[in-house]
Amino acid sequence: QVQLVESGGGLVQAGGSLRLSCATSGRTFSSYGMGWFRQAPGKEREFVAAIPWSNSNAYYTDSVKGRFTISRDNAKNMVYLQMNSLKPEDTAVYYCAAQYLPSIGTMKIGSKYNYWGQGTQVTVSS
Q1: Which end of the chain has fewer beta carbons closer than 10 Å to its terminal beta carbon, N or C?
Q2: Helices and strands of the chain, counted as H and E runs
Q3: Residues with Cβ < 8 Å from 105, sequence gap 6 or more?
């Protein structure tokens, strides 16, 4: 069983930055690929970023490339999403998720993730 707890959301002006954190429990953190997803009001959940256990080859949706950076600290069982140059369209609830032994092809697919956090609200004002 893996438990995920997000933090770091809030209200920020356009162009600002936020850093989301995801604290995980469980002894096999290094066996999981980690992802961030978001859901805006009235929209479906969408993939934002993902990173395998090795901290290599991170994946991003096109709209956040060059602005967001995902990272993980396997020693601390933590995952982070650094968000810079935020835009009003980034406003959403952001979810941290864990996928057991993912393949390259599944890291962007929400239904392949095994565990989810409760979400943290990010609001970007114009």
Answers
A1: N
A2: 0, 11
A3: none
Residues 87 and 105: their CA atoms lie apart, in Å, by: 28
- Look over the chain and give the mean of its residue pLDDT values, rounded to a whole number: 94
The predicted-structure confidence for 73-119, as pLDDT tens digits, reads as follows: 988 999 999 999 999 999 999 999 999 988 888 999 999 999 999 99
Tokens of 3: 């438990």
DSSP type of residue 45: -
> Which DSSP category does 105 fall into?
G
Task: Give the count of beta carbons closer than 10 Å to the beta carbon of residue 82.
Answer: 15
**First-to-last C-alpha distance (Å) of the chain:** 40
Tokens for 85, please give them: 């140059």
* C-alpha to C-alpha distance for 1 and 58, rounded to whole angstroms: 24
Count the Cβ atoms, other than its own, within 10 Å of residue 7. Answer: 13
Going from the C-alpha of 59 to that of each of 10, 13, 50, 78, 118, the distances in angstroms are 24, 26, 5, 17, 22
Contacts of residue 41, Cβ cutoff 8 Å, sequence gap at least 6: none
